């Protein structure tokens, strides 16, 4: 999640995601995106895979769509808690940089990179997705998972992704998109409801509009996918899944344990999450938590999202685009210097810079409308 710096929308988004950060992290885990299933949800037979497995599957499918087996350096725009960038870095044996406007999520992302043994290979900082603080051509892979919806100016956003991408590089965009063509009044109301619930930016674009924006910067579409019927989001999770089923290991452990032991663990997690809510409200974060309680516990967000999908207004699309090498000769990426010590600050203008044309990266040692 990221948005344009200094705007009222950016401040609202940062307040929401910082306010509910600890609760969402404990409830949903390290990934902040949809879970993808092999078959359409309405045709699934038997018990669905665990929520953690479905989220991991989302990232693995995205990596597969790139057609890449290796990369040098990736940028994850709107990096959440950092899990997507870490997964990409491990799968493609590359360095990773993530940017986000939520200081809480950036702090957690740097901690996750350390926990997963990535060391200096993965760095995360507070920065603006509408103005990434990097020089042209700094990355050979740029990833945006459910971040474009938070960008008020989609044209500028795609321009910035294209700018920081090196010749011959790849962009992966996975996001909620509006349907092509004219929206009915009902469909527009459904999309407006999403903006109110999730602090997204409006100015909804269709997949075709994104593809035209990529084409305007000389990029060609290498792969695309429509995952509309195969996903579940946070809004779909029952309270039982929310409290118990975060990943495959935990799911297996709960199933093998006795009912009293599971009940005790459930109660402990419920008490802990209630404590988080009380502490946040004590610090003056009432509004974000009320949005979460009303949206996820009382089911308002599930109704909002199901209305948008059910009306045909909303789709979930993936686009993989490549920048041609053209007349430029393949050359090493410019070295990248990142000031992670300031990763939780609010001024991202001087966080990082890329210059020169060396082959090695350098990083600090301290630790993501209308048609």
How would you briefly describe this protein structure?
The chain is of the alpha/beta class and 371 residues long. Helix content is 42%, strand content 17%. The model is unreliable at 1-6, 245-254 and 342-370 (pLDDT under 50).
Descriptive overview:
The chain is 42% helix and 17% strand. The protein has a domain at 8-235 and 304-326: Rossmann fold (3-Layer(aba) Sandwich). Helix 4 links the parallel strand 2 (73-77) and strand 3. By secondary structure, the protein is α/β, with parallel strands linked by helices. Helix 1 packs across helix 12 and helix 7 packs antiparallel against helix 13. Mean pLDDT is 78; it is low at 1-6, 245-254 and 342-370. The chain is built from 13 helices and eleven strands.
Mean pLDDT, all residues: 78
Amino-to-carboxy terminus distance: 23 Å
Following the backbone from N to C, one meets helices and strands in this order, namely HHEHEHEHEEHEHHEEHHHHHEEE
Helix amount: 40-55%
Number of helices: 13
Strand order of the largest sheet: 4-3-2-5-6-9-7
CATH topology of the domain at 8-235 and 304-326: Rossmann fold
The CATH architecture of the domain at 8-235 and 304-326 is 3-Layer(aba) Sandwich
What amount of the residues lies in strands? Answer: 15-25%
Number of strands: 11
Unreliable residue runs: 1-6, 245-254, 342-370
Name the CATH homologous superfamily of the domain at 8-235 and 304-326: Vaccinia Virus protein VP39
Estimated radius of gyration: 20 Å
Estimated structural class: alpha/beta
Salient structural properties:
371 residues; alpha/beta; Rossmann fold; two-stranded antiparallel sheet; 13 helices; 11 strands; 42% helix; disordered N terminus
């Amino acid at each position: 999640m990221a948005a344009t710096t200094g705007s009222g929308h950016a401040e609202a988004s940062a307040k929401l995601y910082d306010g509910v950060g600890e609760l969402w992290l404990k409830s949903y885990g390290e990934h902040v995106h949809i879970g993808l299933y092999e078959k359409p949800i309405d045709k699934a037979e038997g018990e669905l895979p665990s929520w953690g497995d479905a989220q991991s599957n989302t990232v693995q499918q995205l990596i597969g769509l790139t057609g890449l087996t290796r990369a040098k350096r990736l940028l994850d725009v709107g990096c959440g808690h950092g899990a997507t960038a870490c997964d990409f870095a491990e799968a493609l044996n590359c360095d990773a940089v993530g940017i986000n406007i939520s200081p809480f999520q950036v702090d957690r992302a740097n901690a996750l990179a350390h926990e997963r043994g990535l060391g200096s290979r993965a760095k995360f900082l507070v920065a603006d997705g509408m103005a990434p603080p990097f020089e042209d051509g700094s990355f050979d892979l740029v990833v945006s998972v459910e971040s474009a919806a938070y960008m008020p100016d989609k044209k500028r956003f795609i321009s910035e992704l294209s700018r920081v991408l090196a010749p011959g590089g790849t962009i992966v965009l996975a996001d909620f998109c509006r349907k092509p063509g004219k929206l009915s009044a009902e469909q527009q109301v459904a999309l407006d409801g999403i903006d109110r619930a999730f602090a997204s930016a409006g100015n909804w674009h269709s997949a075709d509009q994104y593809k035209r924006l990529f084409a305007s910067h000389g990029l060609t579409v290498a792969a695309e996918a429509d995952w509309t019927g195969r996903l579940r989001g946070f809004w779909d999770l029952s309270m039982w899944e929310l409290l118990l089923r975060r990943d495959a290991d935990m799911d297996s452990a709960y199933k093998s344990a006795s009912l009293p032991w599971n009940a005790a663990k459930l109660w402990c997690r419920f008490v802990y999450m209630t404590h988080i809510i009380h502490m946040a409200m004590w610090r003056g974060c009432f509004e974000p938590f009320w949005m979460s309680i009303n949206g996820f516990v009382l089911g308002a967000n599930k109704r909002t999202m199901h209305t948008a999908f059910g009306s045909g207004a909303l789709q979930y699309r993936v686009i993989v685009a490549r920048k041609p090498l053209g007349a430029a000769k393949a050359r090493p990426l410019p070295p990248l210097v990142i000031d992670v010590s300031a990763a939780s600050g609010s001024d991202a203008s001087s966080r990082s810079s890329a210059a020169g044309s060396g082959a090695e990266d350098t990083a600090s040692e301290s630790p993501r409308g209308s048609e």
